Amino acid sequence: HIHISSRENTLYARRANCIGSVGLQLLANAMAEPLRFLELPSAPDVSFWARLAELKLNEYKLSEDPIPCVGHYRACAHEGLASPLTLTSASFDLDTTYESQIRMEGEVVLLNTLESMKTFDRKGAALGAIRKVEASVQSGTCLSDPTALNRFVMVCFADLKQYTFYYWVCVPAAKTADPILSEGFTQGVDQAACEACQEYYHSETKGRAPFWVLEGGEEGGYRCRPIDNGGEGGKDDEIATVAFVDPSHVAGSPGWPLRNFLWLLCGGLCGLRRVRVLCLRHEKLGRFSASRSAWHEVAIPPAGSDTTVNAVGWEHNSKGGLGPRSANLASTLDPKQRASSAMDLNLKLMKWRALPGLKTEEIAGARCLLLGAGTLGCAVARILQGWGCRKITFVDSGRVAFSNPVRQSLFQFEDCLDGGRPKAEAAAESLKRIFPDADAEGVQLSIPMPGHPVREGSDLHRRTLDQVSALDALISQHDVIFLLTDTRESRWLPTVLSLKREKLAVSVALGFDTFLVMRHGCLAQGSDRLGCYFCNDVAAPLNSTKNRTLDQQCTVVRPGLASIASALAVELVSSLLQHPLKGAAPDKSESILGVVPHSIRGFLDSFEQLKLSSPAFGNCVGCSPKILDAYDTGEAAAPLWRPRPSGGLTLTGPFLFTALRGLREEDFVFDEGLQRARVPGGSGRPDGAQAQGAGGDGRHGGHGLERRGERWRVGLRWWR
Predict the structure, then answer these.
(1) Active-site residue among 156, 270, 554, 623?
(2) CA distance 574 to 360
(3) How many helices and strands (H and E) does the chain possess?
(4) pTM for this structure?
(5) Separation CA 685–CA 683 (nearest Å)
(6) Picking from 349-353, 440-444, 497-501, which range would have the lowest pLDDT averaged per residue?
């Protein structure tokens, strides 16, 4: 602004008599300085970036379409800091308004790469925004809604791995051919003017109007009203008085939003050339301050013949140059929260290109029970975590041995010391170390097994019944049951309970170089129910742990076999959970992830895999109606483990044999203890070769179904 003395005023008056009013105006303009506006700084907070990241992952994905949003600013209340354009998580709700805060609409252009941000058409984006402002001026919309005079554009790139956001904000302003001039500036205003504006701002506009007309003054008092067409405007000597909520803190430099308002009053619509502006700033208590507010006398040169509107307004960075800013939120986030977000990130990225319809929450929200915390249990748990599964419960009765850590990925050398830690507990703690948000639990529990005698009335008998109840409760509390134990008989009770509780059960069995992955059928399949682990082997699950050599006591398999089988088991479950029927899906039907077979057999010696299917066996020792009915009456829960008075054998054999009575008994010859059922005339393969079961080591028996002409191989034997 320019201070003019009384002597100079006299000189100007004398010259005015000679050159007239037009010449005086030109002289004044020559003496005036361009009015400088303070840019409106942006202040997106943490919640804004979190919401933007969520929208990017779940909704917009690879789209670069503008995202509409709103920001807010208020009158400056600090002497050394301008009021910023604040952006929060609520900015994406376009109906968001706050009292005593000025609303500004805008859009966010979220780019997919940092390189795209470097080549982004900033000029075109700013012009696009200012054309929307120009349209509101030409239509008169801005007269009823002055907030339409200002918009913003944000272009940004989100590095969601590092949680760093690069952004650049523009509040475009119309650029006139000649600069807007300041004819005078006065710090401090009448208290009456501030009080009149305070009353109007809070009572009439609820603190949401950025501009309004101020009339009267001096002894007549001040009156406020909404902006209109400027009365009779258009005269060179007419001066309009307006009030403006000023976010600037710099004396002599009003805030950036005033620029488009002046363009509206003087050039765009009303044709005025001179405007008196009351720039209102706040005290700390939120009221307009008479001492901090200021008067500005503003002059705008006439518009030229060129009506093209140009735009300026891209924000300066922290170094003072034109360029983007960055917000690194990694240090502000809880490390556990970052780990959780990173886990979900990998899953959500699958939906961007590969499988937009994938429901990752199906497996991530599944409650998984792992019966066995050995080689298979550790591998299955890690792959489940890769799918985002958080609820994982281990059941195992063993302790970590020195031979375990090299094959079982959740254990370390320290877990073997002092007799070894309980496997279930150590595995659960290891999962939490890997992913702190995991809801992992270890239960040290022995699974009651047929063929293992228990004396009635003994402490072991009571513990066994408690173990049955505990296992039943665990299966009831989970959605997916993985049978990963290393003996065949330990899978029998979980098979019965999983079917009774209608849970999805998956068995994984290993041989030296072969494996079996099988999903058990469920009652919902009705007459088309698929078979369980025991359906294809006419043999009672008796004690397989006695009289075994050292190599039979250990799981002697090729080292890579467990990882392959475990991966297939989890992927089979993930496909099933995407199917509309879940575990009741028919064999070889398809979900969004592909086919869902009944069983998968693998052979490492030939690197082959077979997808085989077999229906439920009506006399199966694990899932037949007779077994389920017997369990209902309590026969399986209590008498099953009682000693037989006559011979020391358990009642397992006679009890399970009831399931086989539907077959013709003359076709069977039983050896002692019902160890194996043989069919006369069908004791071997047609080629005379020894049949190999799914386990390959004899402990898991045969569970396949194979047809050659009119002959079928069920388990270890061939049938017509």
Answers:
(1) 554
(2) 9
(3) 17, 30
(4) 0.72
(5) 7
(6) 349-353
